[in-house]
Structures are given as C-alpha cells and as structure tokens.
Design brief:
Length: about 375
C-alpha cells in the first residue's frame, strides 16, 4: 500500500504485523535501526575492550612459522589432563582426536624431514587461521558503526520505498508478506481480507489475483443469467405457450443440477478453464428440448410414442456424436482442457438423459387427452 505521509506508514506497519495471516510488514522506517543509542553504547564498550587487541586499524602481524611447532607441543602436553578432566564428553573426544593428530605431527618431526614438517604446519595454519584476517577486518568495520538516519540510505534502496507523483508529492510504500503459503484461493482470500480490514486501499499481486477471479466469476454468472433470460424469451416467442416453455426448461434445470452433482462425483470442480462449458451445455440442452417439445404436440395428437419417432432418434444420435466429440478433450495433457472435457461429457449426458426421459413424461401430462 502507498501512503502520503511517513508517519502514517510508520503507524500502519505495526497494525499489519498483528494480523494472524501476516508474517511481516516493512516500510522505509524499518530499514533504519531502532534503539541506536543503546546499541552504539554497547559498540563503544566493545571498542574499549577489543580496540587494542584488533590492532587499532594497523595491519596484523602473524606469528612466525618458527613458533608454530613449539606452541603445538605445549598444546599436546596440556591435552591429556583436559581429556581426563572432561572424560565422556564430546569435548574430550575432540581433544583425543587432536592429540592423536599432534602425535602424528611429532613422528613427522622426529624423522627429520624439515620440508614435510613445514608443509604440514602450513596446511594446519591455513586450516585454522586462513579466514581470521577477513573476520577481524569485518569485526573492525562493525565496531566502527555510527548513527544511521533515513538520509543515509542509498538512492537505489530509497527509490523502492519512497516515490513521487507528477505533482512532486511523496508516497511511502509498505510491503506485506503472508504467513501461509499462497498455494490456492482460500489462503490468499484469507490473507487479502485480513489486510483489507486495516488497509482497504491495499493493492498488489494477491489482490489482483483475487479480484480478477471475482471479476471472471461474476462475469460468468452474469452471462449465464442473461443467456437463460434470453433463452426463456425466445422460447416464449417460438412456442407461444407458458406450459411448453416449462416443458423445455424443467428438464434443462434438472440437467444443470445433475451436472453439478456429477462435477462433485468425478472430482472436477468448476474453474476458469471448464466454466466456459456451461453456456454450451445450456444451448445444446435447449436445442434438444425444442425439438422434442414441438414433436410432442404432433405425437400427442396422433397417439404416437415420441420415443419411437425419428425426432427422438435424431436427438439421441446427434447428442451421442456431440458428446463423443467433446469427450475427446479428456485425452489432452493440459489439466484445464481435461476438466473441460469431463464437464462437457457429464453435462451433455445428463442433458440427453433428461431430454429423453423427463421431457416425454412431462409431455404425456401436458397433452393428456388430446389424442
């Protein structure tokens, strides 16, 4: 979120951190260390204690190589007492291993091979002290700490947190991280809703994802509702009978309910890939209903069983061909296309079932006694 005042940003960040779904919230003020006076006093005390030991900025003078071996002999002489005092502890085991290594070094010295002894001592010196100069330099830099203000931030860093609009006014940025893994809409919705309770104008990737999902879902609901209204009006104009309109729509509504049940049964929830199949199922289902409803009038007048007519056979075979064509989508590798194929197959199958079973039964009630 962007705020026009640094104090507002400084006050809002702690409120965001208190939310259960928020892991951290950072503003530019969080980049400046807090409690600097107390921390710098500790640094000054360390300078008094360690300044002379670190050479006060002077280059370090390593111990001469000639002193390495005598010093190691002193360590080897002290190790047996240490092992006896700390018997059974990890420190004693480590000291025993070190004593064994120093004994090997003694044997190397007793052979009189000065070159081999110097090479072994050089390797030991490098292993133990190779990183010490860099560490001491880093410690010297740390002990040279001074007060830090927001003006000390580099321009590259400051630009990420403070910006200016066309009028020259400053805007201060707060960035918020979630505590949960954003691997689905449920935790993302929870994170966004909690942040919005404190910062209603927040924006970013998570909010864009959630809002785009709401927009798409709302658009499909709107389109589905408008198409259903348009279909109802066209049926009223075409059939010119409210009873006939219901004769077509009731099996269609039942087929929709069965399609939803089938999506649950086959573990294919609605998503942005397969939801576009719903208007198609609606349009095809209306097609079947119109054919069978119009033929029901003629069949009732002549006393013919509608399921024995060419219209029923045409609807059956046409629906099977259409279902088989859309069912091919289930063979795709993309999971979204597969889910669309499953939903179309289930939807067209239930639409056909309701058209050939429920609609003729309703037609018998509608046109009873007309033969």
């Amino acid at each position: 979120m962007l705020l026009p005042d640094a104090e507002q940003a400084r006050a809002l960040a702690p409120k965001l951190r208190q939310l259960p779904a928020v892991r951290r919230a950072i503003s530019v003020s969080d980049l400046v260390p807090s409690d600097q006076e107390a921390k710098l006093a500790i640094v000054d005390d360390l300078n008094v204690s360690l300044g002379s030991a670190l050479g006060d900025g002077k280059p370090l003078t390593p111990v001469a190589h000639a002193e390495d071996y005598p010093a190691l002999r002193q360590v080897a002489a002290a190790l047996p007492a240490f092992v006896a005092e700390h018997q059974g502890t990890p420190a004693a085991d480590a000291a025993s291993a070190l004593l064994t290594a120093l004994e090997r070094l003694d044997r190397l010295a007793m052979r009189g091979d000065a070159a081999a002894l110097d090479a072994a001592l050089a390797r030991l010196r490098t292993a133990l002290l190779g990183g010490l100069p860099a560490q001491i330099t880093s410690l010297r830099d740390a002990l040279a700490a001074a007060p830090v203000t927001q003006q000390d931030l580099s321009p590259e860093v400051a630009r990420r947190w403070i910006g200016k609009d066309d009028s020259g006014a400053s805007w201060y940025r707060i960035e918020v991280w979630p505590k949960e893994v954003m691997d689905g809409p449920v935790p993302m919705e929870r994170f966004v809703s909690q942040v919005r309770t404190v910062a209603p104008d927040a924006t970013g990737g998570a909010i864009g994802y959630i809002e785009s999902g709401h927009a798409v879902a709302g658009a499909f609901k709107q389109a589905f509702l408008y198409s259903f209204i348009a279909i109802t009006l066209l049926l009223a104009i075409l059939l010119r009978s409210a009873a006939d309109v219901l004769l077509v729509l009731i099996p269609l509504v039942l087929a929709g309910l069965l399609t939803v049940a089938g999506s649950v049964l086959f573990h294919v929830p609605f998503n942005f890939a397969n939801v576009i199949a719903l208007p198609l199922i609606l349009g095809v289902g209306v097609d079947y209903g119109v054919y069978l409803a119009q033929r029901s009038r003629i069949a009732a007048a002549s006393g013919t069983n509608i399921l024995r007519t060419g219209t029923a056979r045409a609807v059956l075979f046409g629906a099977l061909i259409t279902t088989a064509n859309f069912g091919d989508l289930m063979l795709a590798k993309h999971p979204g296309i597969v889910s669309m194929g499953v939903l179309l197959t289930v939807g067209l199958s239930t639409t056909l079932l309701c058209a050939l079973v429920l609609l003729p039964s309703l037609g018998q009630l509608r046109f009873r006694g007309r033969a």
